[in-house]
Amino acid sequence: MSAAQDTLPRRADARRGAAAVLVAVLLALLVLPTSVTGSGVALPAIGRDSGASLAASQWVVHGYNLTFAGLLLACGSLADRWGRRRVFGGGAALFTVASAVSAAAPGILVLDLARALAGVGAAALLTSGSSLIGETFDGRARGRAFGAVGITTGAGLALGAMVAGAVTDTLGWRAFFGLHAVLMALVWCTVPLLPRGDADGPRPAGADWPGTATFSGGLFLLTLGTVEGPQRGWGSGEVLGLLAGSVVLLAAFALVESRVRHPMLDLRLLRNGRFMALCLIPVVATLSFVILLPLLPNYLVVAGGYSSRAAGGVMLLMTLPILVGPLLATWLLRRGLALRGVFGLSLLCLTVGVGWLASALEPGLTPGALAGPLITLGVGLGLNFGLVDGAVLDVVAPETTGAAAGFLNTLRLGSEALAIAAASAALVNLVRKPFDTGLKGFPSYDGGSGTLANSVNAGDLAGPLAGLPAPARPGFTSLVTHGLTDAWQTVLWTSTAGCAVLSVVICLLLGGRERGSTAPPEV
């Protein structure tokens, strides 16, 4: 009788602990996606207020993405060794402070550094949060928890652009980062309620600092080289040096991980075909969906004549369907469709959606013309949201869930940082070519093609137009909008081809068998 009485309080404590984990992680995941979508929408206002160049202001986005991606592996490994609760709490505190500093930043340099610091906190939150859910829930409860993760993250993506546009237009961009600080402070307040796991003891193990330094350094140099390529020239010694340095550091990372006693990335994970296939799904999402989040609003402002708020509203066509996607995935699974089939449908929607958008773009396009491709993209991403994270944890050993979550999210965020930087660079390069020729017809414009390309890709057409006489403005606007549209179509068709190739590879890996195993695929 006493044993039964003792069991009841333990079960109640476990339920309270599970509820606290779910609330804390979901609130954090509601905030983190808005840092990606919202920063892109606020970027034109930040550039105007700070007077910063395009390259400097873009690091508000690139700096966050870079540290976010570069430290995911390290934070995942630390979560396994130091404890998920400890790393989650540290990440929440760091993100709160960094967001408060961003809101009060006196200049673009402080803002860029604060955003990079926020990316460190985001990396700790994302990897430890996924692991907290993985170790707290199992069976159907884990599936429901990760379904909630998908819906919540989708809500953050859906609301981020709209909220950023509304807050920036009414209260200014500083208020947007201040709102981040307030919400993440609430997450930090939930940390004492989280249950302690096996790794949350008082004597944490050491971190893999050589692996962290080589990987983060390699990713930083690669991103910096990609960003600086259009500005300095791809054949310049500086850019070639950055790219060569990134190759050296990433090769050194692979060597370090094969030799250190406690690597932050267990290279044996890379031999797991299903694990690698699942980790590649977010890369397809990056090439089709994520690159649009910070960049498409600027296109809509310039080529469509939208305000920042209206551009954020149009982005809801792409982001709101994410909320429906996890529910649709659950319905399909209950109707007997295999998980592999849901992933295949998701990949198909993402690939078709980005190709459809490429064919639909034109100057002055209406929201109705964008509805089909943007909704298709949103549904495609929503179908795999949460499911990928849960499936990854099911195909690896329990003691490596932090590292597995770190690797998954490193590919997710690393591909985002690089793809956004590469797409930005490509758009600047591609749009300069028609400007080189077309600007000869506008002698009253006192800037060069490079300056104009930077301005319009940052969402600013009003500045270049201000120095022109009124009769020249319609022709100048036509030159800009058609050149920008052609550049966007080239980038999107390239993304479509990449998505198609990766989708085939993923489906083949998911359909294969592990070496030495006669069991059927688990997904």
Automatic annotation (TrEMBL):
The chain crosses the membrane at residues 60-79, 91-110, 145-167, 173-194, 239-256, 277-296, 308-330, 337-358, 370-392, 413-431, 491-511. It is a multi-pass membrane protein. It comes from Streptomyces rubradiris (Streptomyces achromogenes subsp. rubradiris). Its main location: membrane. PANTHER family: EXPORT PROTEIN, MAJOR FACILITATOR SUPERFAMILY MULTIDRUG TRANSPORTER MFSC. Pfam families: MFS_1. Keywords: Antibiotic resistance, Membrane, Transmembrane, Transmembrane helix. InterPro entries: MFS (IPR011701), MFS_dom (IPR020846), MFS_trans_sf (IPR036259). Residues 19-515 form the Major facilitator superfamily (MFS) profile domain. It is found in: Cell membrane. This is Major facilitator superfamily (MFS) profile domain-containing protein.
